[in-house]
Amino acid sequence: MVHMTTPPRIAALGGAFAVAVALFAGPVAGTASAAPQAPTAASVSLKSVGNVCYSALPSQAHDTITLIDQGGPFPYPRDGIVFDNREHALPSQSSGYYHEYTVITPGAPTRGTRRIITGERTHEDYYTADHYATFRLVNFGC
Q1: Is 68 left (phi over 0), alpha (psi -120 to 50) or beta?
Q2: Which of 58, 89, 90, 101 could form a disulfide with 48 if both were Cys (CB 3.0 to 4.6 A apart)?
Q3: pTM of the full predicted structure?
Q4: Sign of the C-alpha dihedral computed for residues 69, 71, 72 and 78 taken in this order
């Protein structure tokens, strides 16, 4: 069964589009705020969160991030659900800020232990290969 959920950062692109229009076409009625920026290693200072280069992720993680950016469709019904951050391993945010997506594990009879957790900021993606025991902020610049 293929499940379709619109990731929060895709919905936020509407605001980014309004900013782009304002920059190129001039002011429009109402106000637009700038799109959130991706976090940097310095802005994520929790000891349980490391960093990983996008190029070092398994190919299945690349596939998952591409699906997230496209808004799906996702292979598992639970993809896109709210990640509650119960362990407080990620930076504290309001409920509903983080969402989780499965990174397919070849040969696994279930969803496996690999996930991408997204925040609302553009490319605020955390990779976990051990079902939330550790997280690594994906660095898209390497």
Answers
A1: alpha
A2: 89
A3: 0.71
A4: positive
